[in-house]
Amino acid sequence: MSERVIKIGLLGLGTVGGGVYRVLQKNADLIARKTGVRLEVAGILVRDVGRDRGLSLPPGVLTDRPEDILDDHTIQIVVEVMGGTGPAFDYVRRALKRGKSVVTANKDMMAEHGKELFDLTREGKSDLLFEASVAGGIPIIRVLKQCLAANRIEAVMGILNGTTNYMLTRMTAEGTDFQTVLQEAQALGYAEADPTNDVEGYDAARKTAILASIAFNTRISFPAVYVEGISRITAEDITYATELGYVIKLLGIVKDTPEGIEVRTHPALLPRQHPLAAVNDVFNAIYVRGDAVGETMFYGRGAGALPTASAVVADIMDAARNIVHRVPGIISCTCFEERPLKEMGRVRCKNYLRLRVVDRPGVLAQIARVFGDNQVSLAAVTQKHSEGTKAELVLVTHEVAEQNLRDALAGLTGLDVVERICNVIRVEGDS
Which CATH code fits 347-427? Predict the structure, then answer.
């Protein structure tokens, strides 16, 4: 009997697309034995078909016409590795409407348009698989949808952006400032020329939205995520956190609470003994707590051509198996609940604060009074150093509602003894 072939159309041949093509070619025999079919790349959409990409490509496989892939009825799986929410979103919609299965690594598209795309899979009875959209080569989407499906997930907390984790790691190890480390990350290719998406937390927040949607079976889009980045973190904050027994990480956090689902992305102080505290450089990790499994953590490379390609090709293999066995969409959208989100003002955390104040008797009493009036209890207060008539205070609160802390901070700005609130960073993983 001749071997069955399933044809694939690849949208994009950049860093990730090139990695996908290399893995498909290098491991073709192994993939065929595991799936029972031969996967053939029948078309690749690119902007410039004449550019040399350093790959051994069959003649005629490159095209700059999307219809050559989307309208080809022999192509059953479309792999989108273009990124963004412009043409990529349109192409994926068209592919799903034509009954093709889609594999994507596009976090932006899934975080903003996931519901619409999953609705199309029900119409066409096809797959929409997106393992690579959250943490590159780290398996987490499949883990939440299948491996931990018997659990009621209580919390997910992750280091989801390699650029910011690299920067915070270097700041911690070397005591350097934010701008210096950012320039180093750009020189090494870890950070873009415009680093806003990474350093202001938007990249991690989109991944947090996807994780929250799957963990809690409720559609949560990117705009619903509370976001702060790391651009206000200083070398002083790193030093004081270390002295207090913490490390600072940018975290995506989702929690199940009686008041609703918490969905937030921001820097946080983590105790040194927390599993995520030891995740350094460009590595990512996702910590999951379930009611049956307890605590688990998934660690690895969250970006890069081959780690991301590993997840993309695994999804292609799943889509191919489902086509062979005629069960596409067997595990589709899992957002079957409509659970409320918890307002950020009601989220409860411990907090680290750094203040610049006038150095004279009675100042601490005035500050403590403002905190007390707003039901904010202080766990620790330390004067770090003085410069002339000014001093720097580091405070750690007990767990407090966000709104109470905000009210207290507003009260502090009205005190003439408080020159500046230098930073406020939440504390996680202490309980």
Answer: 3.30.70.260
